[in-house]
Design goal:
Radius of gyration: 23 Å
Strand order of the largest sheet: 2-3-6-7
Number of helices: 5
Structural class: alpha+beta
Number of strands: 7
Strand content: 15-25%
Oligomer: single chain
Shape: globular
């Protein structure tokens, strides 16, 4: 009996020590990547990647699935269980529409050196708990001949912790 209690005590101490030495798990939220201090810097990044025909770079500017899941989805009304909208469905719809809009933008403007002038958001801004979404982006840029163009190269940007992230390329 004493031997069993002794072994039990050793096992409890070993488990407690193992728990204390386990590394703490990192934050469950994936940090946002490719964020910018200003809307102008975001717009310039889009123009630069378009001129370079950098499709992978353009896609990287938009929210990734994990970023959407960690930062956006929990704050959307559609994520509430009673709405019965699966995450995969919501993400799939956004991704498909965003990629389709990006393909159109690339087809029209890729390879064209456009000189940035200014940017604005003409649509409403929706405030969520930890971020805002600014809609209907508009970029004014000049082409090679100096002609001023008003462009809708992406639809919206999210602002979180004072930084701008391209939300999607969907232009409605």
């Amino acid at each position: 009996m004493v031997t069993v209690l002794k072994w039990l005590g050793v096992a409890v101490i070993a488990l407690a020590m193992a728990a204390c030495t386990q590394p703490t798990s990192p934050s469950s939220k994936t940090p946002l990547t490719h964020t910018f201090e200003t809307p102008e810097a975001l717009a310039q990044a889009v123009l630069t990647r378009l001129a370079a025909k950098d499709l992978a770079g353009l896609k990287a500017l938009a929210l990734s699935e994990q970023e959407f899941k960690d930062h956006v989805w929990p704050e959307l009304d559609t994520s509430r269980p009673e709405r019965n909208v699966p995450f995969d469905y919501a993400w799939g719809q956004l991704k498909q529409r965003s990629d389709g809009s990006l393909d159109s933008v690339v087809g029209r403007y890729a390879g064209r050196p456009l000189r940035f002038a200014r940017t604005s958001y003409r649509g409403e801004t929706t405030q969520y708990k930890s971020f805002a979404v600014r809609r209907e982006s508009e970029i004014v840029a000049a082409d090679e001949a100096g002609t001023e163009l008003v462009l809708q190269l992406f639809g919206s940007a999210m602002v979180k912790d004072g930084r701008y992230k391209l939300f999607s390329y969907v232009v409605d």
